[in-house]
Amino acid sequence: MSKRYTLLKKDGKARRGRFVTPHGTVETPVFMNVGTLAAIKGAVSSMDLKDIGCQVELSNTYHLHLRPSDKTVAKLGGLHKFMNWDRPILTDSGGFQVFSLASMRKIKEEGVYFNSHIDGRKIFMGPEESMQIQSNLASTIAMAFDECIPIPSTREYVEKSVERTTRWLKRCKKEMDRLNSLPETINKEQMLFGINQGATFKDIRVAHAEEIKKLDLDGYAIGGLAVGETHEEMYEIIDEVVPHLPEDKPIYLMGVGTPENILEAVDRGVDFFDCVLPARNGRHGQVFTANGKINLMNAKFEFDTRPIDEGCGCPACKNYTRAYIRHLFKAKEMLAMRLTVLHNLYFYNKLMEEIREAIDNDCYKEFKEKKLKDWNKK
């Protein structure tokens, strides 16, 4: 395998890297903007994503399998052509959706049987099926199929689940190698990231990291966090796991999180992030600023002629006031959500740019402390 990831420098444990993919080079640390159904919720287009500095878009294997179907996307040339996005795309494996459909699933060695949340029809997904779906989508990076373990879970259950996840990972790798060799495969250079699991049992997490790094995958994710444990527990797990993952591969913390979470995880050696939070919060009028979060629904913004965040270069801040955007929300105009989602995603992408710059300049600790202090001003 040719070298994809280059660790450019470290500042403490914080890593500054460069990840070369078939669809462009990613500067890390990076935040992936979540477009579950090949679109960012809030009427944000792929052209908008370029304007706000998005490097990687993330789409959802389970949801696209159901609608419009991965086979339909393949017939249309793959996800990049389908959504008109020529930069990297990561597709998750469907494992987290299986976790969230707890009342509708049965987990067995071969895979998972569950019912569609759309029409109730029975669906089976195992490692091979997940790889086949993601190959049809032709994403840049495919995630291995795993079980996201609920927290808390018994040690006995976690041990058995992690062992099964490892067996599934080996099946994923074998199937991806096969798919990438087929002449009809759209993206024959599709990459595979494995996922570390183990709930909050540190020794299980470490043993699993040591086991999966032997497979020499393109990258490694820490999964099963931000699902019920405290922030402190999450940071402790990251501290334990990262030293046991390869230093020459990107490390991805799945589904995390708040700007504060990102700063802390970067400080512990994480490279990739994703979360629905900025878009979801934006759709409800909650926006991020240099001085912390604000809610534009609040009455105090009715006559506020300032932009959302003074000094911000996003399309919303350059053109509209807090008062106007608040009015749009009250009037239930779609433009309100579009503007606030654009702003929040710009904020996240800009934050990652500043993080990379701070690591480059050997001042990440100071940068982190100043940001946390500014965001927590009352």
From TrEMBL:
Active site, per annotation: D92 (proton acceptor), D274 (nucleophile)
Broad class of enzyme this protein falls into: transferase
GO biological process: tRNA queuosine(34) biosynthetic process
GO CC annotation, single: cytosol
Domain tRNA-guanine(15) transglycosylase-like: 13-376
InterPro entries recorded: ArchSynthase1/Queuine_TRR, TGT, TGT-like_sf, tRNA_ribo_trans-like
Domain of life of the source: Bacteria
Pathway annotation: tRNA modification; tRNA-queuosine biosynthesis
Region annotation RNA binding: where it falls in the sequence: 255-261, 279-283
EC number: 2.4.2.29
Any one Gene Ontology molecular-function term assigned to this protein's record: tRNA-guanosine(34) queuine transglycosylase activity
Role: Catalyzes the base-exchange of a guanine (G) residue with the queuine precursor 7-aminomethyl-7-deazaguanine (PreQ1) at position 34 (anticodon wobble position) in tRNAs with GU(N) anticodons (tRNA-Asp, -Asn, -His and -Tyr). Catalysis occurs through a double-displacement mechanism. The nucleophile active site attacks the C1' of nucleotide 34 to detach the guanine base from the RNA, forming a covalent enzyme-RNA intermediate. The proton acceptor active site deprotonates the incoming PreQ1, allowing a nucleophilic attack on the C1' of the ribose to form the product.
Self-association state and partner proteins as the record states: Homodimer. Within each dimer, one monomer is responsible for RNA recognition and catalysis, while the other monomer binds to the replacement base PreQ1.
Family of this protein: Belongs to the queuine tRNA-ribosyltransferase family.
Protein name: Queuine tRNA-ribosyltransferase
Gene name per UniProt: tgt
